[in-house]
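Posting for a labmate who doesn't have an account.
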Amino acid sequence: MIETPKYPVSHEDRHLVCQEEVEGPLKVIIDQANMHGWGTLEVISAIEDVIKHLRLAYAEDPDPAEDPIDSNEGHAFIHGRGGKETP
């Protein structure tokens, strides 16, 4: 479980505390993937790629909650299809 930030955005340790908070859930994801036959390094590589795509999607649309409900563009963008469905 990720806890509420202890420090304001301007605090020098906030980024480190955020890393500590997300590390546990990421380890759980890696462990679950390992139990289903995925290798640790390939899972970490996949997570890095997903994060890269999420960063790009966020730069493109920082508030996807405002998008129409039937829009699939964010999902497609995250998965490298640039908002276009693939057959």
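Reply:
Got it, the structure tokens are right above this. The chain has one domain: 14-78.
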